[in-house]
Amino acid sequence: MKKFQLYFLRIVNNGFLIQFFSITGFLLFSGCNAPDKYADIILFNGKIITVDNNFSIQEAVAVKDGRILAVGKNEEITKLLTSSTREINLEGKTVIPGINEGHVHPIPASRSEYEYSIPDISSIEELFNWISSEVIRKDTGEWIVHPKFFATRMIEMRQPTKYELDSVAPNNPVFLNGSYAGMINSKAMQVSEINAELEHPGIFIEKNNGKPTGFIQRSAFDLLAIPERNEPSEAQKLKLLKEMLQLYNEVGITSICVGAGRIEDIQLFDKLMVTGDLTIRVFHNLYLPFDPHTTLNEMRASLSKFEYTTGKGDEWVKVGALKTKIDGGVLTGTAYLREPWGEGAREIYGITDPDYRGVLNLNKEELIRIITAANEFGWKFTAHVTGGGGVDVLLSAMEEVNKESPIDKKRFSIIHGNFYTPESMDKMAKMGVYADMQPAWFLKDADLLNLVLGEQRINTFHPYKSLMEAGVIVNGGSDHMVKLDSYTSINPYNPFAAMWSVVTRKTERGSVITPDEAISREQALKMFTINNAYASFEEDIKGSLEPGKLADLVVLSEDILSCPEASIKGIKAMLTMVDGKVVYEEF
Ligand SMILES: [Zn+2]
């Protein structure tokens, strides 16, 4: 027994006791005759990609009481068998740590198709066909709303015009919601009292006649007279969320970081946990509980009353970062760039102001106040920012706060970011700020941005390799918000499609953009495993397959490290295990 080097650790984490043991080395039973613990499950005859510090590869893994008991050679691990052990012969298949998704919105996504499914639209023609069918299906005057429509993702890369929409839907108001901007038809304007007399910064006006073009920014969304949708009941909400999480399990996801939400949202996950229906671990960011434009003292007062901080919870549901929103989005020309959007944006977004750089919701001083308050009260801080100009404002605010009270151990992050220069990467590395990236955006939108912004600026778009070389931790996620399917949802949350794009720099339209920024398959895997465990301060308990860590793992249909490059995006999860329990199986 003395040869077993067992260390029992107890970690007190915000009042929650997490008990785990670690067993040094892989060769658990060298020199021993009988193990003192037998496995609940053994997966053997496989290729176990551990994602440990050495990226070591093993043959088998044993699981006991929701933890990894041992990882090693077949003959070592099969010694842990007993009559009640479930044996899974991998027959050469590959196992990776459970996928940790860095940025999703499962609650709105789960409800997005509960009344009717949202169509996949890839061209203007398909859009008009769908609207025409809705006109027939609905009553005259009833709204036709697409809840997440990015015109720039269609073959034509353009919005339909107001006149085109009017011709297919003359008597129904139409709203194509693109998150940060959208398109409406004349009927929508009429019923919402949007007209030439209404002066509103979010309404674009036709130069020649002074009438609204139909293209509106998010700030004008509240003007739309759209009737409230039927809210699902509490029981329905829980059922829908549970089903959404099961769909995540089907692609190998075992942990998620929820991009943003409220306390009530966290409570939904807690309720699923209580009933034994939670099949995913959750790190949940929260919106600021105060007005971002208010004084520092008001922010402090608000946070002092807030009974939550980052890390509160347990290994199933945990409070994440405080999150704010700095600018708009790249798909609607509202991201705040370093330079004006320019000529290329005229056609696609209808931007005519030569100096227009995008929308900046918060200035540096406001950000300094918010970050100072968050830092003082023990919060991890993060912000949505999609343009390089916004990244620079955020980083200079972080630098100011860092001078007063260091943030380099706080694991602050930039959500999206998208455009990084050597200077910004340098600052991030120095302050320990990691990059929360969405490769699905590269996959879907790099062609459009190449066209709009030109070759020079596209070189700074999603520079994974440069970020890593600069010493910045890069995290993978999708920003999934709407629809259920892993490939056709917005944004697609299939982690293997994302990993394929970071390894190949290929886009959905078949081009290869800035191939120098491609990273290795190992680095891609880390983006979706250990790096996201680090983001939630949990790299000691998950993110790799090592003894003592949580038994969250995935069996893959193909070997992600050696399969043909083109096959990566089609890899399937054959079995997903969370906490030692099989939550999805196609074996
Ligand atoms: Zn998001």
SSE layout and pairing:
Layout: E1 6-13, E2 16-23, E3 41-44, E4 47-49, E5 57-58, E6 60-64, E7 67-72, H1 74-77, E8 86-89, E9 94-97, E10 99-104, H2 106-111, H3 124-137, E11 144-146, H4 162-168, E12 174-177, E13 181-184, H5 186-192, E14 203-205, E15 212-217, H6 234-250, E16 253-258, H7 263-274, E17 281-287, H8 296-305, E18 317-325, H9 344-349, H10 364-376, E19 381-385, H11 388-404, E20 413-416, H12 422-431, E21 434-437, H13 439-453, H14 455-458, H15 464-469, E22 474-476, H16 495-504, H17 521-527, H18 530-535, E23 553-556, E24 573-578, E25 581-585
Parallel strand pairs: 3-8, 4-9, 10-16, 11-12, 16-17, 17-18, 18-19, 19-20, 20-21, 21-22
Antiparallel strand pairs: 1-2, 3-6, 4-5, 6-7, 9-23, 12-13, 13-15, 14-15, 23-24, 24-25
Helix pairs in contact: 6-7, 8-10, 10-11, 11-12, 13-16
Zinc ion binds next to loops.
What would you say this structure looks like, in words?
This protein is of the alpha/beta class. It has a domain at 118-223: Diaminopimelate Epimerase, Chain A, domain 1 (Roll), CATH 3.10.310.70. Helices cover 29% and strands 21% of the residues. The strands form 5 sheets. An 8-stranded parallel β-sheet has the order 10-16-17-18-19-20-21-22. A 6-stranded mixed β-sheet has the order 5-4-9-23-24-25, covered by helices on one side. Strands 11-12-13-15-14 form a 5-stranded mixed β-sheet. Helix 8 (296-305) links the parallel strand 17 and strand 18 (317-325). Bound molecules: zinc ion (ZN). The site of zinc ion has 4 residues, from loops. Zinc ion (ZN) binds next to loops.
